[in-house]
Amino acid sequence: MQTKSTTSGAKGEAESLHLSEKCEEQLRRIFQREMKKSAEENSETKRETVLRIGVDGGGCAGFQYTFALIDEKDVVTGEDRVFVGRRFPEEAKVVCDEVSFEYLKGSTVDYAEEMIRSAFEVVKNPNAEQKCGCGVSFEAKF
């Protein structure tokens, strides 16, 4: 079974996960940094870093978003969807499992830089009835 690969926000793609420009730029920086580390270490295997996003039960509103940087070789064929950025398709990739994707369809993944933190976040989730004040958890519409 093949991994489902989709361009972020592809035209005509009703079931998509969108990557903001800031998200793509940050993923590109991370990807390039990890590739540089691999080269400096004379590593035979390249570190091709992607962002894994998921949804777990928990948080103050019922569900919470999870984010992790993983090596692309850890993507599970047939169980994960891979979304690639429009501007940097080789460097900006987000991976999501099928179950979490049901809660994330149509959402936008952004990267926010604030005075106290910098982090990836989900914004504009059409599947969220409401979200908590910190934006980490949400109540699903279904």
UniProtKB/TrEMBL annotation:
GO terms for molecular function: 2 iron, 2 sulfur cluster binding; 4 iron, 4 sulfur cluster binding; iron ion binding. It comes from Bathycoccus prasinos. This is Core domain-containing protein. Residues 36-135 form the Core domain. Signal peptide: none annotated. Gene3D superfamilies: HesB-like domain. The lineage of its organism: Eukaryota, Viridiplantae, Chlorophyta, Mamiellophyceae, Mamiellales. GO terms for cellular component: mitochondrion. One of its GO terms (biological process) is iron-sulfur cluster assembly. Pfam families: Fe-S_biosyn. Belongs to the HesB/IscA family. NCBIfam families: iron-sulfur cluster assembly accessory protein. Residues 1-20 are annotated as: Disordered.
